[in-house]
Amino acid sequence: MSDTFDAMWAGLAPLGRNRATGGYRRYSWTPADADVRAWFTAEAVARDLAVETDRNGNLWAWWGDPGPDAVVTGSHLDSVPDGGAFDGPLGVVSALAAVDELDRRGLRPVRPLAVTVFVEEEGARFGMPCLGSRLLTGAVTPERARGLADADGVTWGRAMADAGFDPQRIGADPERLARVGVFVELHVEQGRALVHRGAPVGVADRVWPHGRWRLDFSGQADHAGTTRLADRNDPMLPFAETVLAVRRAAAEHDAVATVGKAHVAPNGTNAIPSRVRAWLDARAPDEAALRSLVGGVDIAARLAAAEHGVTLASYQESFTPVVDFPGALRDRVAALAGAGAPAPALATGAGHDAGILAAAVPTAMLFVRNPTGISHAPEEHVDLADRHAGVAALADTLADLTGAERP
Questions:
Q1: Where does Zn(2+) 2 bind (predicted)?
Q2: Tens-place pLDDT, residues 284-313
Q3: Does 122 belong to an annotated binding site?
Q4: Taking the model in full, what pTM does it have?
Q5: Which end of the chain has fewer beta carbons closer than 10 Å to its terminal beta carbon, N or C?
Q6: 179 labelled binding-site residue
Q7: CA 221 from chain center: how many Å?
Q8: For the chain, what are the domain ranges?
Q9: Are 96 and 8 in contact (CB under 8 A)?
Q10: Annotated binding-site residue? 370
Q11: Considering the domain 210-320, what is its CATH architecture?
Q12: What is the CA radius of gyration of the chain?
């Protein structure tokens, strides 16, 4: 088990890596994305898994005939800008290594088994997270998905076509979804709860409701050296006040909220900006708190914009309601993944494809310990022994769920 995991990890590690930062830039429908997709396909084919690409660009590697009542596992290979090595890829490599482990034990699944890679989970290029799973389940319309654009104005539809896929075919895929009897995603923990509990592996209990909102502040570009302060309509000022309002609102609601991305135009050191486009990421223990947080931020932003003679346009780009994973399945996976006692159950504020699929099929998640607690950064880490423990827990789970047996 360890040998195959380690070899796959070494083969994937260089792909899409930014040597200057040590992080990864694996954005959908780019050369780096093509490289990791080719890597996955080659690894799956080497295991005699039949690889398919669905209409939305998600990859499926099948052990046995595709469905029905299949057990599906996997994650994603795309990254945030300069993200860590483990967010997403750990689940994909572990899934393939778990297939190897079942084979090493001489087991064959009775139910069909598939390893999947979902596209655009991070939303780093086109702004909408979990886009591949949202399209599969019909949680986003094809029209909206095709029109999503990156920072250069390239739409999802155009990028997908340039990569050799047909964007006119994207959309809900009920026939494929009907094949899935249960979905299990393994993921690096994005926090240190497992460190504090002294456990290498945990299970997901719930996912906080979360979403992304866009804020466009529009003012008047002008000369930084000749325009009086009283004559300015500077969108940077209400933007700055809004960032501070976000922090206050998050603390007030026991939530987390972040403005981590902004575009300034014309972006000159000696020019007053004409526009600031920013994104709010907000997550809370319950939807009422989340809506109250976002509403308060919107009011503060509009008051600040009016004070500085700036206009504000805001809207919700994506939203995921609270996900409570099925208790019976969660407990079953926890019993299989624990070492003598059930693996601990954790709530998380991070979004996952599993959270989207949970609205359509029985779903569970495994978390693997992250000693740094850091994620979406190069310092994200999983110790080697814990990587192997995650594979073992996933293999035990898949063996149980598929009814694997010796021929």
A1: 87, 122, 376
A2: 999 999 999 999 999 999 999 999 999 999
A3: yes
A4: 0.91
A5: C
A6: no
A7: 36
A8: 2-207+322-402, 210-320
A9: yes
A10: no
A11: 2-Layer Sandwich (3.30)
A12: 22
